[in-house]
Amino acid sequence: MAKVALEEWKEQIRTPEIECMSRDEMSALQSERLVKQVKNVYDNVSFYRKKMDDAGVLPGDIKGIEDIGKLPFTTKEDLRDNYPFGLLAVPKEKIARVQGTSGTTGKLTLASYTQKDVDVWGECVARGLTMAGLSAADRIHVCYGYGLFTGGMGLDLGAQALGAMAIPMSSGNTKRQLMCMEDFGATAFACTPSYALYLAEAAAEAGVAERLQIKASINGAEPWTEEMRKKIEGILNINSFDIYGLCEITGPGVAMDCIHHKGLHVYEDYFYPEVLNPADQSPCGDGETGELVFTTLAKEGMPLLRYRTKDLTSIERAACECGRTLPRIQKFTGRTDDMKVIRGVNVFPTQVETALLSMGGGVAPHYMLIVDRENNLDVLTVMVEVDEKYFSDEIRRLDGLKAKVGAVLKQALGVSVRVKLVEPKTIQRSEGKAKRVIDNREL
Ligand code: DLL
């Protein structure tokens, strides 16, 4: 346990020649890669040839990165329609690995990687691990699930590329996780932020937190807030970092935040980001929130042009204090599809998290949103766990707390909510991505 203060942080950059490149050099590299990639998909993927023909765009029309707006979009539905191998740009024999993500219904989303794609993936995660102050000397405890989900494999590949020790725990069995973390002297761990908080609380409760040698955690795969990061850092006395990715593009390692926590640096030499207005797909200006869209500039197996992620963020292109010139995407407010419209107001689970954590005690950031429709009106109920020490208190105090939570949430969300205080540890913990919303409306 050794949280390093910002003033004492020694920045390490794995590939300064890329991560600190001037904008002009980066644009030139991206242009060269895009021109090649567009020709590649037009020649080798019938889906793209047809899409581009339909849009009236030929590879020769794309002369550089500034022409990217002429290209058609790719959506998750396109992936589903071409499941499992319809979008390959290479013969199936060249695919070294598949990874996927399970949707809530039906078929999963499958992504295919050549060996070179796998190497690039590991390299990008290693850049992120370096950003978190880790090196070949570190022992990285991976409690993301291994399997089709990219979390376990992605962090493992990153540890390998870094030359560090990977501890492939996978998810589950918190007691055993803590025992191994202590016994093997892990110096970093990786899992979803909701599980990180659960692990941290369990470590503190079992009295092992002080004995751990963890100095950093790498958390992502679901939206989380700055307040949540500080909470995890506080309990374990470590530095926590946000990592982003999606299996279609490359799993974790598309972007990661540095010690300044002013947004996640996108590895744009491989994954070109655009932020577009969800209504008409026009480009958003720097700092304006929209849908994140990626083009894979060097992917071999299943390259994607202008893939619509449905993730909402904004982009900042000014160089960061850490020295990197890579653009930064802001922490995600949510996805176009996990935003709930309650009586006309847009509500994201992350707003609830920020509000609960800003209260400075009384409740724990374990929560669940339940949306119902009663007499044609939307009703939002927020279930929140009460802090252990409050729970044993008198009813009168609990009523006061409930009223306070209601007022704080109304102020933060702009809609009134029903608050249901529940006992500590009653909201189900997730070892993977947390489920934060149940929508019972039949919309
Ligand atoms: O969640 C890859 C990953 C694994 C990222 C481990 C980070 C760590 P998928 O299962 O394909 O891939 O889900 C991708 O998860 O479109 C976002 O909506 C969400 N997501 C991923 N990372 C973050 C993050 C992995 N740091 C989807 N913050 C994405 C917010 C995230 N949302």
Tell me the major beta sheet. Answer: 9 strands, mixed
State the secondary-structure class.
alpha/beta
Rg, Cα atoms, Å:
22 Å
Low-confidence stretches: none
Mean pLDDT: 94
Give a description of the structure.
This protein is an alpha/beta fold. Helices cover 31% and strands 25% of the residues. It has a 9-stranded mixed sheet. β8 and β9 form a beta hairpin. The model has no long low-confidence stretch (mean pLDDT 94). Residues 101, 144, 149-151, 154, 220-223, 242-247, 251-252, 309, 311, 332, 335 line the site of 5'-O-[hydroxy(phenylacetyl)phosphoryl]adenosine.
What is the strand and helix layout of this fold?
Blueprint: H1 16-19, H2 23-44, H3 46-55, H4 76-81, E1 95-101, E2 109-114, H5 115-131, E3 139-142, H6 150-162, E4 165-168, H7 174-183, E5 188-191, H8 193-205, E6 216-220, H9 226-236, E7 239-246, E8 251-257, E9 264-266, E10 271-276, E11 290-296, E12 307-313, E13 315-316, E14 328-329, E15 334-335, E16 340-342, E17 345-347, H10 349-357, E18 363-374, E19 377-386, H11 388-391, H12 395-413, E20 418-422, E21 437-439
Parallel strand pairs: 3-4, 3-5, 5-6, 6-7, 18-21, 19-20
Antiparallel strand pairs: 1-2, 7-8, 8-9, 9-14, 10-11, 11-12, 12-15, 13-14, 16-17, 18-19
Helix pairs in contact: 2-3, 5-6, 8-9, 10-12
5'-O-[hydroxy(phenylacetyl)phosphoryl]adenosine binds next to helix 6, strand 7, strand 8 and strand 12.
Tell me briefly what this model is.
With 443 residues, the chain is α/β, with parallel strands linked by helices. The chain is built from twelve helices and 21 strands.
